[in-house]
Design brief:
With about 210 residues, the chain is of the alpha/beta class. It folds into 2 domains: about 140 residues, 3-Layer(aba) Sandwich (Rossmann fold), CATH 3.40.50; about 60 residues. Helices cover about 45% and strands about 10% of the residues. It has 11 helices and 6 strands. It has a 6-stranded parallel sheet, sandwiched between helices. Helix 1 crosses helix 4 and helix 8 crosses helix 9. The radius of gyration is 16 Å and the shape is globular. It starts with 8 loop residues before the first strand and ends with a helix.
């Protein structure tokens, strides 16, 4: 994809991509560890895990896949009850530029739609036309496919943006080009090793990628 090729739709992640929720997430996971009996993480351990994938995180926590749905539901409920995370600087302006450039915006996140809307505020939330929230921890590729089917957008006309290794894997599984942001959960080095179609190091690079 060249700098001037604009997708029909942008599939946007929320936590770590548009919203700075990493500190809250660590606190929430450690509180869930006390409730559900898995091990908590120190700040240093959490930082070290940023260069790894989901499997390594589950091993570090001592979790099995069958435990995830219950814990994920608990974390979503905790997020819904918490204050909304702050947006990264520049999000409002970037989403405005993308919409003004004719790109349809979809939010695909395991966070709740209500929490995301509170974080955005009414004006910025109105720029999002498609909401695929409250997803399970696994299965993001399926959510990408569902959003694209509903919007009647072919995968080749979409572009996903996320901050984790699993976001890259999900986009590729759905046949969608993908860009990774360097300011979220995974380290820039870990993201670069997966060779995304773009590695964004500043918020304004996202619309610039599409000539906006």
């Amino acid at each position: 994809m060249t700098a001037l090729t604009r997708p029909t739709m942008l599939l946007l992640d929320f936590d770590g991509t548009l919203a700075d929720s990493r500190a809250w997430a660590l606190q929430a996971v450690n509180e869930a560890a006390q409730r559900f009996g898995f091990r908590s993480l120190s700040v240093d351990e959490a930082e070290a895990l940023r260069g790894t994938g989901t499997a390594a995180l589950l091993r570090a926590l001592g979790l099995r896949p069958w435990q995830l749905p219950r814990i994920a539901a608990h974390l979503r409920a905790a997020a819904a009850a918490a204050m909304p995370p702050p947006l990264f600087p520049g999000v409002d302006a970037v989403l405005a530029r993308l919409r003004e450039g004719g790109i349809r915006l979809a939010l695909v996140t395991s966070n709740s739609e209500a929490n995301a809307r509170r974080a955005f505020g009414a004006e910025t939330a109105a720029r999002i036309t498609d909401w695929a929230c409250d997803a399970a921890l696994m299965g993001k590729a399926a959510r990408f496919r569902a959003v694209l089917r509903q919007a009647r957008v072919p995968p080749g006309a979409a572009f996903a943006v996320g901050d984790e290794l699993r976001d890259i894997a999900a986009a590729r599984a759905a046949g969608v080009a993908v860009g990774a942001v360097s300011w979220g959960y995974a380290t820039p080095e870990a993201l670069a090793a997966e060779r995304p179609d773009a590695l964004f190091r500043a918020m304004e690079e996202i619309p610039a990628r599409f000539g906006l």
